[in-house]
Each structure stands twice: as structure tokens, then as C-alpha cells.
Amino acid sequence: MTKRFVHLPCALAVLLACLGAGMAQAERADNAKPMHITADAMRYDDVKQTSVWTGNVIATKGTIIIRGEKVEVREDAEGYQHGTVTGSAQKRAFFRQKRDSVDEFMEGESESILYDGKKDTIQFVKSAEVRRYRGTALADNIKGALIVYENLNDRFSADGSSPVTGGGSGRVSATISPKPSALSAAKAGSTSDSGAKPESPSK
């Protein structure tokens, strides 16, 4: 099937904007960038207010990259947007974006990625993994059956079993690196200690 290049109509444009806004301190310049998508097929239903892209979907907007086998966007009766990115048997759904004003990237993978416009949350569902890079170095890594980012209060949560789909190992794993400021302070303290003169023994 021939892949089609689509300049995004409103539905996925909103999904990208919402997903981009959902990541902590996301790159602000992304909001002003054009949005593009490639896929094998696209279907839009004006009555149901749904848009569906299928087949090796790749969506980009500035530093935002979204990949999946299927992307579906729906608008509810109250006007809120809800989006679902679904992976394939070979590849999980993928989201990546640069953080604002720092050389850091946030990215996540899971079997599906759900955005709820009313609750303003992003869920990485089933075989979920969220990573933060400083430059090209991996800083933080969280794995679980379900990882949720709540944009309203800037909070992450992870569960070892998913109430959305069921299953999971029941455990969450995480590797969290110290912030650069903490590392600098630790190095400064170490240098200061090594340069200190030993006290004279008491007589």
C-alpha cells in the first residue's frame, strides 16, 4: 500500500499539541512548528468526530516524534480531545520530545499511549518505559505495566500491574540519576575535603 503524506487536519494536530504540552517543561517552540504525518492510510469521520491513521504512522511537530501502527483521535461531546497511539507486534508505540531550555529529552514506549484531554493525562499502557536523557546520556529510566503523567500537577506515577489492561509483573523498576547541581555540589565538597589540612594531634 502506498504511504501518504498528510498535512495534519485539526484532530491529530490537537493530539500532538496535547501530548507535547503534557511532558514536564516541554519545548515551548514546538507549539509554533508545522505538523506532519506519514501513514499507509487515513480515515476521517465527521459524524463521529474521529480520525484514524494506520500503517507505520510517523507524526512530527518540532522536536516531538510519535510513532505507532495506528493513531486514533476522538472529540467528545464536551469538546475534549482523546487520542490513542497503538504499537505493532514488532514495535511499541513511541513518544519523544525535547525539554525546554535544557539539553534533555523525554521519551516513552508502551504497547499503547493514551491521552485524555479532559483529565489532561498521558498514559503509557502495558510494557511501559519512560526515559530521560541529558544530551545523549541516559539519566532516568522507569519501567512498569502502566506509567501515567498528570499534567495538571506535574506528577508521574507507575504501577507494576495495569488496571487498564490487566497483567504485568506486579513490580516497578527505576533508575534515577542525581541532578547536575547535586553532582557539582558533591564534587565541590570532595575537593574541599581533600584540600583540608589535618588537625595537629593533641598533646
Overview of the molecule:
A 6-stranded antiparallel barrel has the order 5-6-9-10-8-7. It has a single domain (4-192), classed as Sandwich (lipopolysaccharide transport protein A fold), CATH 2.60.450. It is mainly beta and 203 residues long. The protein is built from 2 helices and 13 strands, in the order E-H-E-E-E-E-E-E-E-E-E-E-E-E-H. It starts with a strand and ends in an 8-residue tail after the last helix.
List the helices and strands and how they pair.
Layout (H helix, E strand, L loop, with lengths): L3 E4 L2 H13 L12 E5 L1 E5 L4 E12 L2 E12 L5 E6 L6 E6 L5 E7 L1 E5 L4 E14 L2 E14 L4 E5 L13 E4 L3 H16 L8
Antiparallel strand pairs: 1-2, 2-4, 3-4, 4-5, 5-6, 5-7, 6-9, 7-8, 8-10, 9-10, 10-11, 11-12, 11-13
CATH fold name: lipopolysaccharide transport protein A fold
Helix content: 10-25%
* Rg result: 21 Å
Which spans have pLDDT < 50 for at least 5 consecutive residues?
Answer: 1-13
Average of the residue pLDDT scores: 77
Structural class: mainly beta
What attributes does this structure have?
203 residues, mainly beta, globular, six-stranded antiparallel barrel
Task: Give me a quick take on this structure.
The chain has two helices and 13 strands, in the order βαββββββββββββα. The protein has helices spanning 10-22, 180-195; strands at 4-7, 35-39, 41-45, 50-61, 64-75, 81-86, 93-98, 104-110, 112-116, 121-134, 137-150, 155-159, 173-176.
